[in-house]
Design goal:
D-Maltodextrin-Binding Protein, domain 2, six-stranded mixed sheet, 19% strand, 321 residues
């Protein structure tokens, strides 16, 4: 009797296993919504090789730049939900763009299945030495004394740096003029030249200039200090605005309705890939800190981020047509 029951259990288990489609059965496409060479592209290419090794299929990075990442996101949202087309999502694409674009061709919560947060990218407030400020409180005091006279550069309208600056303006009650550029490089060049006073820059871009003394590193916008500049405080630490937090992050998502066993497999393999010392080292060299999560944690965090940046964008009247 016992043997018969055991045989039935084994047969049922094998039958159930047979109903689960094997994955992956072909190369996996990882779409990146920005051109090669930037931090998002570096993240994708750093993870593609170890992830491919674990999946036993090639992971091909596919750069689909344009429309602030919306083209790549729409492509993935409409792809077959079989785990073979993925998106390297960013705070801009998934959390900020819904607040900036009136007719977005996708819904971040409805059209994607979160897999994992991958990395955090700290932004830093840097100032030109000629401004004469060495701390965030000094910058805020100067901005209050000279409303509208100070400028802050960013990599563009609607960028994480832009909305991080708008959040600070709202909390501190200050008026600084936003100067958007077509990328972080031109913005940094003008800051170094003294054409603008301050900049909300990525840590990786700012580190060499802060360490050389060409710029003053006032504070990072994230909830914790950046590993590359551990002596620079967070804005929440350095000012009375304890609730300030503007994290810049990247995560991986799949099309909605991707089978749960595929999401689980991808999450597990991504965690293993991010745990490799050489992967963490390469990411950290770009100012990217590994911050893996569960799919549920990513979903909850994404929903919170969408609500947060919708309010900031509305208060700042920030729109992209």
């Amino acid at each position: 009797m016992r043997c018969t029951v055991l045989l039935m259990m084994i047969t049922a288990s094998l039958a159930q296993a047979a109903t689960v489609d094997p994955y992956p059965t072909k190369p996996v496409r990882l779409l990146v919504g920005f051109p090669p060479g930037g931090a998002v592209d570096v993240t994708a290419r750093t993870l593609a090789a170890p992830l491919g090794e674990r999946l036993k299929q090639q992971v091909v990075v596919d750069n689909r730049g344009g429309a602030h990442g919306n083209i790549a996101a729409e492509t993935v949202a409409r792809a077959t939900p079989d785990g073979h087309t993925l998106l390297l999502g960013t705070i801009s694409i998934l959390a900020i763009n819904p607040a900036l674009y009136k007719n977005l061709p996708f819904d971040s919560m409805r059209d994607f299945a979160p897999i994992s947060i991958l990395v955090g990218v700290s932004n830093i407030v840097v100032a030109h030495p000629s401004l004469g400020v060495n701390t965030m409180n000094e910058l805020i005091a100067l901005a209050k004394a000279k409303p509208g006279a100070l400028t802050f550069a960013t990599s563009g309208t609607g960028s994480p740096g832009h909305l991080a600056g708008e959040l600070l303006k709202t909390l501190a009650g200050i008026n600084m003029l936003h100067v958007p550029y077509k990328g972080g490089g031109p913005a940094m060049s003008d800051l170094l030249g003294g054409q603008v006073n301050t900049m909300f820059a990525t840590v990786s871009t700012a580190v060499p200039h802060v360490k050389s003394g060409k710029l003053r590193g006032l504070a990072v916008t994230s909830g914790r200090r950046a590993a590359a500049l551990p002596d620079v405080p967070t804005i929440a630490e350095a000012t009375p605005y304890r609730g300030y937090e503007a994290n810049n992050w990247y995560g991986m998502v799949a099309p909605a309705k991707t089978p749960p066993h595929i999401i689980k497999r991808l999450n597990s393999e991504l965690h293993a890939s991010l745990a490799r010392p050489e992967v963490r080292e390469r990411l950290l060299g770009q100012g990217l800190e590994a911050q893996p999560s569960t799919p549920a944690e990513f979903s909850t965090y994404l929903q919170r981020e969408i609500g947060k940046w919708a309010k900031v964008a509305k208060d700042a009247n920030a729109r992209v047509e």
